[in-house]
Amino acid sequence: MVFSSLHRISRQSPFSFFPWLFVLLTGAICWPEHTHSQSLFHDSITRVLPRIKDKAEQVHFYNRMAEGLLNSDTALARKMALDGLRLAKALGDQYEIAKANFILGKIAIVENRLDAAQNHLFTARDITRNSAHKQLCADVLEKLCLLCEMQGEYEEARRLALEMIPMRVSTNEKSKIPSSYLILGNILQLIGKYDSAIFYFNKALTLYEENRNANGKAKVFNNIGNVHYYLGNYDTAIQYYLKSLQIKAEQNDTVAQSKTLNNIAAIYYQTGNLPKSLQYYRNCMSLLHSMGHEPHLAIGYGNIGLVYYDMKKYDSAMQYYSKALALYKKHRMVKGIAATLTNIGLLKYDLQQYQEALSDFKSALALNREIRDEPETALTLQHMASTYLAINQTGQALHFALLSLEMCRSHGLKKQQMDVHNLLARIYSEKEQYKQALIHLNAFNNIKDSVFSNEQREELNRIIEKYEMERKEKQINLLKTEKKTVELELQKRDLIVYGIALIFLLIAIIASLLFNRFRINRNQLQISMEIKMNEVEQRLVQSKLNPHAISNALRAIEKMIFTQEAEQASLHLKRFESYVRHLLDKSVGTMITLTQELSFLQLYMDMEMDFAPGKFEGKISVSPDLVPDEIEIPPMFIQPYLENAIKHGVKHLVGPGLIEIMFSKKSNHLVCTITDNGIGRRASEDLYRNKRELYPSVGSGLLDERRSLLKKLGRIDIDLETTDLFDNAGNAAGTMVTIRFELDE
């Protein structure tokens, strides 16, 4: 964007152009990273703008700079565009007025101000619609079309797309024509017009193949797979998804890969392979978390909720549904809100909360009707009919089931028709109208036998092949014309272009050298920290397996044997063996589940209680909202604090001691509290002063160092807090250690 503006300036003063160019490029290249560079960029604009004497050139400069800043600083981009708009209005330059409104519309979309975006875009369209600026008008219509699709206004989006395509063709925009077909096909797919969607997808695919646009082909393959998915042709759908995924992986397109992984997971879900479905959904979510793309995260949360729902894990399903619903509402994604409300209604239906389920279904129905999504409307009506049947309101159930069947037939949704016929058979049986029940039962069986028939697959494949084999003479001619135009433009290059190329080359070389140096230093630091982490973990294991500790344990077992407590000695020996095995197998390197850590803590506590019978009692409790198998923490992090509570707290009490370990979840943290009623830290410090052993002593330095390394390596963030406890008289009453482990959402 900067180049276009600067090229126009250079025609007025070619020899004074290079100093301006260097200043602007320096600021623009550094702009996204540093505050100093941002200041330099502002200064650059301030210095260049007064040198542009022509007001029309100033307008052009404002608009191009605003467009260039769109993805880095929307506030500054909006200011530049508004300045350009005011100047364009003063000059009466209709093209630049439309251009400024178009840029302001795009900025408003990025800022999620959709009403403002629509106003700016409609203004730009009205100015350019009947003008000679067909290319700009087509760009505006495309952005309006996508905006209407985001808001669920599918009919308006289709109308805008049909108006846009002839403009693309008339302006000979070869690279944008297939994307226009793809947009229209996607809208037709959303409203259930699958044959028409296939038609436009194949038109787009042919052009993308001619243009050798692999990214475009991947999008088409994914959307054709969606059509087959909706029609129940799962084997064909997954073939298209895998084609799309292969191209996206080669292009390293993370966003697109996540969409296709999501679709493949949906296929496995529909065919009943829930573990495989969950695996693909989790692969998809790992990509989405790395990007922080909330609209796509919302879809992923909802889909994982569906899998947990089918697994009958309703609490987990509701957690993911709630996450999805919050993000859908945040981004005003009406279709997603409606779908999630429907899924929550189904969950409540299974829990026999029928009135609450009906409330969710009605909310979803209103939203689906608002965006005219008839396939989803039909599905919601079917669920409402099932709910009314469950509460014995057969009249209402029949009414909604018949409405659903009519919509399913009009859109050719065979699998859903099958489900509604089955529901109607049940309703008529309840009403003792057995003849009608038999009619719908027969219809159910007929559709069931044909829904996955080979004839249906072959027919759809014939439709796809028909359009894939069409000749595209007009597009070939467009390619030839564009090739000649490019060759002519290349011949007109002058010294200014070569100067720009040289400057960019130098900057690229310097940036590459700096980046390589940074990467080498970063890798060396990473390796150093990994080595340090291994050393710390090995030292921690050694501290637990020192000869003194092993000798004490074996002497205690030996004493039991000599006192003829063979069974008790055998039990202690097995526990000691399990303790040592855990230290050697689980304590170094990887994370372990909370379930494994709980088992180890109980083992260690039992072993210590055996060696000091009657000396203390230990309890471990876990909050009901935790799923221990799904939570991972570093091994050997809690045990040292339990050991301190025993050896420096309750061991020196006259009466029996009590140690309580509690696990709970607060926000996105796992919270572990270790509470003892021992003698307290100050008394323990006095007791061990001669040994220079302060409470807590067991591996405390190693644990602090390990905690710091875990945070630096980006594995987990752990907070630690120690609290002295006192009774009403102010006497020491024990110690409480609180450990907070940060959890991944």
Q: What can you tell me about this protein's structure?
A:
The protein has 745 residues and is an alpha+beta fold. Among the domains are: 373-460, Tetratricopeptide repeat domain (Serine Threonine Protein Phosphatase 5, Tetratricopeptide repeat, Alpha Horseshoe); 528-742, Heat Shock Protein 90. Helix content is 73%, strand content 7%. The protein contains 32 helices and 7 strands. It has helices spanning 2-10, 17-30, 35-48, 55-68, 74-91, 94-110, 114-128, 134-150, 154-170, 177-190, 194-211, 214-230, 234-251, 254-270, 274-291, 294-310, 314-330, 334-350, 354-370, 374-390, 394-411, 414-430, 434-450, 454-468, 473-491, 495-544, 547-562, 566-586, 594-611, 639-647, 681-687, 700-712; strands at residues 592-593, 616-622, 632-633, 657-666, 669-676, 718-726, 732-742. Strands 2-4-5-7-6 form a 5-stranded mixed sheet. A hairpin with a 2-residue loop joins strand 4 and strand 5. Helix 14 (254-270) runs parallel beside helix 16 and helix 20 (374-390) runs parallel beside helix 22. It is globular, with a radius of gyration of 34 Å. The model is unreliable at 1-38, 452-472 and 692-698 (pLDDT under 50).
